[in-house]
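User: hey, got a sec? need Putative pre-16S rRNA nuclease folded
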Amino acid sequence: MSRILAIDYGKIRTGIAVTDELQIIASGLTTVTTKSLISFLIDYTKKEQVELFVVGEPKQMNNTASESEILILPFIAKLKKQFPDIPVIRIDERFTSKMAFQTMIDSGLKKQQRKNKALIDEISATLILQSYLYSK
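Assistant: Yep! Here you go:
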């Protein structure tokens, strides 16, 4: 089988999570600079078979698109152009950053470690991917 890869897209950094090959467990993979995201995905898909991209969809409380959606839509267009055979779906990512931060607290990470924004992005991508897996 192949993996599902989730993306928590950000203006500066992007968190990435993947499933195992059986698509049962979501795990944080890494955080990359957003400007190097497409090249990272090209390299990753050369090594691992990816069946689906799950991209976080930021929404406001009233269910309308958040301001960051303006940045995400052009990225999705590039993603679809670069990987025409890999479908892209969107998953509501409301509260993932807050949940990621709470996960860090619950895991016993010290205050200094919780300031690591890259780790928050990676955990957020994992939460997006878990949300997708639960919805399947």
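Quick note: The beta strands are 3-8, 13-19, 26-33, 50-57, 88-92. Let me know if you need anything else on Putative pre-16S rRNA nuclease.
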